[in-house]
Structures are given as structure tokens and as C-alpha cells.
């Protein structure tokens, strides 16, 4: 194995591991089509790999989201230009430029939540997203109410840290 | 009376409105006279705003990007390298010598941001071995054009096979065309960092699952995910040492999900941890 091959492969894997999740979520929300989302994520990461100079020393996440968004828009236009495909999976939302920053932030929040320890994520899903009280969550999760409380506390502390690591200060 | 410690541990549930009225009131009484706990509350108060930006489903999506995108990227890279070699043959060898000085720079740029990543030793044997010529061919790409996202399209112009070359944008390449599902008896493969799995789907037959890289004794379940998002979980089976070493053990799994409705398979361990995901596509 030559060092160059390893370095290339490593970069592809690192790009995927660090960005594919949020990027995929973002593009899937734009297209509503898992297959198309996969293609666009692939093309976006490929461009990042082919142009390391474009992504060094700048906020790479915003760059990736911009490229992906442009691909979605281009593809949408291309589809619209072909009459026989008109009405074929209309695009739900094409975001304006200023919404990109918000999208980057939202997906970083989702990423921070996904990075929590499973029991922390689980208790936040119950208590916040499913709106359960401490007592209800205690029954659902099969853990004492006191544990639900302390876990919720530590989960929020961990989330705060995970957000700070991503440049999002609560 | 609640102690500071009790109050602290309740502040998360309090912030998210999950305490019952009586308990919430006790916390409030304490907060009214305790600066330390009030400071702690302020640290947590901003978090619900962030939680409200995403849904449960968003978190799920982020946690499970489709692995086959990575596989395709690695395969695609091989093709591009091959093309690079052909391009070089066409070009005068002088060109390769001329850019010799800058090749290293490019390599270092690529290596530097990822040097801490643990993935290097996981690189499979199929990884690309670019010759100097391939690197030289890559180096001939315009360097400045990709510097800003809105100009990234221009960067693809020198690529004969680039699908995004025209600003009016052609559709994306049908990269998955050769992987489409449909014929009977199709085998689908998925790979994670340590585990490789193959699921064979045949009409009217149980699914056949083959695993590599799963430690003996691991209890596994197969989750069949439908296109509509429904999940069907199989009965568990345990990977046995002998068959694991032989690498040939086939686990049969009955699924009620029709073949054409299957979006993906997941192999999970006893704790529900994802070992590997296989996309049926
Ligand atoms: Zn106190």
C-alpha cells in the first residue's frame, strides 16, 4: 500500500464519517427521496475529496451544504425542463441562501444529539420530544423516577457541551 | 426542604417541564433563595430552544447515513484513478516531470487534516495505489476554481466523465444503476468498520444472512426496514465460534416484508446496537 493511497482512502472515510450524516439528513429533507439524497451526498463528498484546497481553512460544513443545495436546485431545474417528467416528485422546498446557515445549525444540533450516550439521548427523546413527565418516562424506560431526573440533568449538561464543541453556545 | 444537590439533579426535568406541579414548586422555592442553583438553571435554560430545532427523525437520520455512499465513493475513486492513468499516457511525460514539485504539496494538504483519524489501518487491500502519473494528472485540475462553492461547477470542466459539467445541470449519474433490486435471488452486501454482511433475498424463501467480522458468541437480530419505514425484527441467533472462523455460516430469517418493499436490512446486537446496515438497492 502506498502512503498516497492510504491518505486518499482515509480522507474519503473521514469526510464520510464526519459529514455524511448531517448532509444526508439535510438533502433528504430537501428532496424527500432517499435514492436522490444518496446520489447528491455522494457527489458532494466526491467534490470535497477532489478539491481539498477548497475545504481547508474554511467552514467545511457550510461549503458542503452549499454544494449539495446547488446540486438539488440544478437537478430540480433539469427535471422541470423536461416536460414528460413534469409533476414528477415536485420539490418540497428550495431554501433561500440565508436559510443555509440555519440549516447548518439545525443539523449540527441533530448531530450533537446523535453524539450523546444512548441513555442520555433516550431520556431526552422521552421527556422532550415525546413530552412525557418524569413519572411517565420512568414507566416507559423501566427506571426509577430519580434516575429519569438525574439522567435528564446529565443529558442536558452533555448536550450543552456537545453544542459548544460545534460552535453553538446556548 | 430540598437540598442543593436534589435541586440540581431536578433542574433538567424542571427545564423541560417534566416535573409534576408540586415538585416544580419546591424547586422554585429553593431557587428563589439560592444563587448557585439559579446560576445552574441559567446554564440549562437555553437548551430547549436548540432541541426545538430538530425532530426525533432528524436525529435518527444523522446517526445513520447510508453506508453504500461510502462504498460507492471508494469504488468511484478507483475508476477516476484509472482514468487519470489513461490521461497521462495521452499527455507527454514531460508534463508529469514538470508538476513533480507540486504533487507533494497536494498530498500533504490531503493528509494533514485527517492525520488523527483512526481509519488508516482499516483500509482494505483493494485501496488504490496511485502512481506518480495519476497524481500528476490530478494536479492538472484547475486549483482555484473550487475555492468557492458557487464556482465549484467550473472545476469539473476538465473531466470528460463529469456529470455536472454544464451549468444548466444534467441529472445526477445513475451510480446505483447496476445495483438495482428486482431479479430473484439477489444478494445485497453491507459493510461497516468491522463487520461485513450479505443478505440474499429469494422469492418465497427465508432471507439468508452471512456475517464476517462478528465476534463469536454475539447474539444478532436482523431488522428488515420497509420503504415506508416499518421495521420488522427477527428472532435472535448467536454467532458460533466454529462457523465464524469458517466464515460460511448462513442464518435463515423469515420475513413478512415483500421483497420489493424492502429498503434496507440492519444487523443489530442484543443491545440493539447497529453492527452493519445493508441497503437493498
Ligand atoms: Zn441550591
Automatic annotation (TrEMBL), chain A:
Cited PROSITE patterns: SIGMA70_ECF (PS01063)
Residues covered by the RNA polymerase sigma-70 region domain: 15-80, 112-160
NCBIfam families: PRK09645.1 (NF007227), sigma70-ECF (TIGR02937)
Homology family: Belongs to the sigma-70 factor family. ECF subfamily.
InterPro entries: RNA_pol_sigma-70-like, RNA_pol_sigma-70_dom, RNA_pol_sigma70_ECF_CS, RNA_pol_sigma70_r2, RNA_pol_sigma70_r4, RNA_pol_sigma_r2, RNA_pol_sigma_r3/r4-like, WH-like_DNA-bd_sf
Keyword annotations: DNA-binding, Sigma factor, Transcription, Transcription regulation
Pfam families, per database record: Sigma70_r2 (PF04542), Sigma70_r4 (PF04545)
Record's protein name: RNA polymerase sigma factor
Organism this protein belongs to: Nonomuraea dietziae
GO MF entries: DNA binding; sigma factor activity
GO biological process: DNA-templated transcription initiation
TrEMBL record, chain B:
Record bears the keyword Membrane: yes
Keywords associated with the record: Membrane, Transcription, Transcription regulation, Transmembrane, Transmembrane helix
InterPro entries assigned: Anti_sigma_zinc_sf (IPR041916), Znf_put (IPR027383)
Lineage: superkingdom: Bacteria
Region (Disordered): 111-177
UniProt key word DNA damage: no
Record Pfam families: zf-HC2
Membrane-crossing segments per the record: 86-107
Composition skew (Low complexity), residue ranges: 111-127, 165-177
Gene3D superfamilies the record matches: Anti-sigma factor, zinc-finger domain
Composition-biased stretches (Basic and acidic residues): 131-160
Domain (Putative zinc-finger) ranges: 4-37
Protein name: Putative zinc-finger domain-containing protein
Organism of derivation: Nonomuraea dietziae
Amino acid at each position: 500500500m502506498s502512503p498516497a493511497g492510504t491518505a486518499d482512502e482515509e480522507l474519503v472515510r473521514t469526510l464520510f464519517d464526519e459529514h455524511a450524516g448531517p448532509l444526508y439528513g439535510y438533502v433528504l429533507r430537501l428532496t424527500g427521496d432517499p435514492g436522490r439524497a444518496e446520489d447528491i451526498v455522494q457527489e458532494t463528498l466526491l467534490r470535497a475529496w477532489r478539491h481539498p484546497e477548497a475545504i481547508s481553512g474554511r467552514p467545511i460544513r457550510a461549503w458542503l451544504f452549499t454544494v449539495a443545495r446547488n446540486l438539488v436546485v440544478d437537478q430540480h431545474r433539469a427535471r422541470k425542463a423536461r416536460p414528460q417528467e413534469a409533476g414528477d416528485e415536485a420539490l418540497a422546498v428550495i431554501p433561500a441562501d440565508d436559510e443555509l446557515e440555519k440549516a447548518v445549525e439545525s443539523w449540527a444540533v441533530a448531530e450533537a444529539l446523535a453524539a450523546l450516550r444512548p441513555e442520555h439521548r433516550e431520556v431526552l427523546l422521552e421527556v422532550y420530544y415525546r413530552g412525557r413527565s418524569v413519572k411517565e418516562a420512568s414507566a416507559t424506560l423501566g427506571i426509577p423516577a430519580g434516575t429519569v431526573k438525574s439522567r435528564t440533568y446529565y443529558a442536558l449538561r452533555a448536550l450543552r457541551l456537545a453544542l459548544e464543541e460545534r460552535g453553538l453556545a446556548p | 426542604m430540598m437540598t442543593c444537590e436534589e435541586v440540581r439533579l431536578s433542574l433538567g426535568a424542571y427545564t423541560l417541564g417534566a416535573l409534576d406541579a408540586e415538585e416544580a414548586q419546591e424547586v422554585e422555592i429553593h431557587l428563589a433563595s439560592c444563587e448557585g442553583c439559579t446560576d445552574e438553571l441559567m446554564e440549562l435554560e437555553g437548551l430547549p430552544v436548540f432541541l426545538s430545532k430538530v425532530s426525533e427523525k432528524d436525529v435518527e437520520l444523522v446517526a445513520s447515513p447510508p453506508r453504500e455512499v461510502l462504498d460507492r465513493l471508494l469504488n468511484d475513486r478507483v475508476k477516476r484513478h484509472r482514468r487519470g492513468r489513461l490521461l497521462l499516457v495521452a499527455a507527454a511525460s514531460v508534463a508529469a516531470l514538470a508538476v513533480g514539485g507540486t504533487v507533494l504539496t497536494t498530498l500533504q494538504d490531503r493528509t494533514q487534516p485527517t492525520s488523527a483519524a483512526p481509519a488508516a489501518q482499516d483500509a482494505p487491500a483493494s485501496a488504490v495505489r496511485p502512481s506518480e502519473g495519476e497524481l500528476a494528472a490530478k494536479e492538472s485540475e484547475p486549483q482555484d476554481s473550487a475555492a468557492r462553492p458557487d464556482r465549484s461547477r467550473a472545476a469539473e470542466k476538465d473531466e470528460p466523465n463529469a456529470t455536472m459539467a454544464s451549468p444548466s445541470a444534467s441529472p445526477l449519474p445513475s451510480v446505483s444503476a447496476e445495483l438495482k433490486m428486482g431479479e430473484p435471488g439477489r444478494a445485497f452486501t453491507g459493510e461497516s468498520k468491522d463487520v461485513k454482511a450479505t443478505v440474499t433475498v429469494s422469492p418465497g424463501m427465508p432471507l439468508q444472512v452471512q456475517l464476517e467480522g462478528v465476534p463469536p458468541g454475539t447474539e444478532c437480530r436482523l431488522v428488515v426496514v420497509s420503504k415506508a419505514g416499518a421495521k420488522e425484527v427477527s428472532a435472535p441467533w448467536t454467532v458460533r465460534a466454529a462457523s465464524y472462523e469458517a466464515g460460511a455460516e448462513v442464518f435463515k430469517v423469515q420475513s413478512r416484508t415483500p421483497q420489493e418493499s424492502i429498503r434496507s436490512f440492519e444487523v443489530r446486537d442484543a443491545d440493539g446496537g447497529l453492527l452493519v446496515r445493508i441497503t437493498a438497492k
